[in-house]
Amino acid sequence: MRRFLLAAILVVAGLSVPTGPAAASGHPRFSALVFSKTAAFRHDSIPAGVAAIKQLGARNHFRVDATEDATAFTDRNLARYDVVIWLSTTGDVLDAAQQGAFERYIRAGGGYAGIHAASDTEYDWAWYGGLVGAYFRDHPGGVNPQFQTATVEVLAHDTAATRPLPRRWVREEEWYNFRTNPRGAVRVLAEVDESTYDPRGYSEPEGSPGMGPHHPISWCHRYDGGRAFYTAMGHKAEYFTDRLLLAHILGGIRMAAGVARFPCGR
């Protein structure tokens, strides 16, 4: 418990958790691949997100490689990484052979961390939909502002992704609505309080409804032999300078990589 409290203090103070023999020896604690290929809408925050994750790696002693080349998805190459981070990917980004390699990677105990538009990806690949937990439906817009300040209710503080966060976290975001509610299949870590903003999405002329009183925005679960973490936050480039968001992402990456506790189901 003392070690986890110290880690939380370090995360809040400097987004750094340099503990363990690997950090002491100078060897990376784990390896991460950031994948940010887009085949539909492209977020202009992707470069900022890649840079922020690389900086997190430098400060927390894990190796980060980044690519938009889908040919990186081979059995041999994926075996080099403890976690693959899908950063605002969109559309169909992998072919059948690449999908097969990623499925085998997860089944072998690999980690997945999805950020923001990772849920707006591969709608025809049902296995991926199960991995991310839910597909994007829409976000506020049209009848109301696309970006709104709202309150995130952090439901658990026993994970690396949530320990640094306040119980009620007020922030601006493009708040995603999902096609289905993953609650029950995943452990919801945080939900956005729809009473604090207008959740109506753009996908219907009058604005589609939100997701109701329990609107998941971040979650984790075990899936097909591997570990999966997802957060819908992270649309704007400026958000990747938000220390609390970076602490949340760092914790989720560490959980998915298997170097932090993963209390997210069997």
TrEMBL record:
InterPro entries xrefs: Class_I_gatase-like, ThuA-like
| Gene3D superfamilies documented for this protein | 3.40.50.880
Q: Which residues form the ThuA-like domain?
A: 32-254
**What keywords sit in the KW lines?**
Glutamine amidotransferase, Signal, Transferase
Molecular function GO labels: transferase activity
Pfam families in the cross-refs: ThuA (PF06283)
Signal peptide from the UniProt entry: 1-24
- Protein name per the record: Type 1 glutamine amidotransferase
Q: What is the lineage of its organism?
A: Bacteria, Bacillati, Actinomycetota, Actinomycetes, Micromonosporales
